[in-house]
Amino acid sequence: MPELPEVEALKDFLTEHLVGHEIVRALPVAISVLKTYDPPLGALEGHRVTAVHRYGKFLDLETDGGPRLVTHLARAGWLHWKDQLPSGLPRPGKGPLALRVALETGAGFDLTEAGTQKRLAVYVVADAQEVPGVSRLGPDPLADDFDEARFAALLKDERRQIKGALRDQSLIAGVGNAYSDEILHAAKMSPFKLAASLRPEDVTRLYEALRTTLTGAVERSRGIAAGRLKAEKKSGLRVHGRTGEPCPVCGDTIREVSFSDSSLQYCPTCQTGGKPLADRRLSRLLK
């Protein structure tokens, strides 16, 4: 799933390639991708893109007097830029293509979604705050006013495990499964630790890990073409998705805890005092 660093990089890429250009066609290929109907998608046509914004994991294309196109790529969605779009109309129901946006230059982008769980979402709205997922977002962790005191206040009364708290978009916007693993590894903290139990020194360490991990990922992604961002994300991860590999810090074997629809990765030596976390799903499989 694209998270804050990748969506920030897409925002920068689209700012460079879209701003000042006119949308001449906005074509839904999979109707399920559209989550709004008034104004229609066609209302974007004839308007120039004036700015691109990011809200958490949402992208927002602002136009000159027209509606805004807000997109959430979900788990398996992606944006593919093309300097020259195909001339023919795509056939609905064929392949992963969900939506196509064409500019007056002939360039444009496709939104695609792999797999069978169709969660890619597109909204055409007058204001991005009309999108429920945007209006519920917590503060952006890279905002100038997101200081340690504000972070501590968010965690003060949280009774959840810190992994779940970091992933809650209404608490902190933009952090998902991968970067929460990376942040907790950098902070040398167990993903099962209760957020409300953190001592002041724990909060400081976690805040610094949050900011440095996300800032570093954004810097690695900056200037990279949209099509290469997925590979860049994977290459920069130290523990997430690396079960069985050696920890780059201590050399211990990276372990995994599996859930019904996701998994987390961590280093026992760095994060849990050398003790593997219970993986009840794996335990049942081994019986």
Please describe what this structure looks like:
- The chain is of the alpha+beta class and 287 residues long.
- It has helices at residues 4-18, 132-135, 148-155, 162-167, 177-186, 200-221, 229-236, 268-271, 280-286, and strands at residues 23-28, 49-55, 58-63, 68-72, 77-82, 97-103, 108-113, 121-125, 255-258, 263-266.
- Strand 6 (97-103) and strand 7 form a beta hairpin.
- Helix 1 (4-18) packs parallel to helix 6 (200-221) and helix 5 crosses helix 6 (200-221).
- The protein is elongated and about 60 Å long.
- Quickly count the helices: 9
Q: Going across the biggest sheet, name each strand in turn.
A: 1-6-7-5
Give the ordered list of helices and strands.
HEEEEEEEEHHHHHHEEHH
DSSP E strands, number: 10
How far apart are the termini?
32 Å
User: Which structural class is indicated by helix and strand composition?
Assistant: alpha+beta
Mean pLDDT: 92
Helicity level, as a percent range? Answer: 25-40%
Percent strand: 15-25%
- What best-fitting shape do the alpha-carbon axes yield? elongated
